Amino acid sequence: MTTAVTAAKQPTSDVFPAPIKSVEAGSAAAKAGVRPGDVLLRVNGQAVTDVLAYRHLLSQGQATLEIARPKEAPRAMTGVPGTAQDHHRLQMTAPPSLDDTFTFDVEWEDPGLEFEEVLFDGIHLCANKCDFCYVHQMPRGFRKSLYIMDDDYRLSFLYGSFVTLTNLSEGDINRILDENLSPLYISVHTANQDLRQNMMKWWKLKVKDEKAVQIRNMIERLESIDLYTQIVLVPERNDGENLDDTVEYLSSRPNVISAAVVPIGLTSHRTNLPDVRTFNREEARDSLRRLNVWRKKFLTERGTRFVFPSDELYLLAGEPLPSEEEYEGFPMLENGVGMIRDFLTEALPELPAALPEPRRVILGTGTLFAESLDRAVEPLRAIEGLTLEVRAVTNKTFGPVTTVAGLLTGRCFRHAIKTGEADLLIVPPTTLRYGTELMLDDVSLDELRQEFRMDVRAGGATLGELARVILDGAQSSGHQWGMSAHAVKDSGHTPLEIEVAERGMRGQA
Question: Which has more pLDDT, 432 or 9?
Answer without folding.
Answer: 432
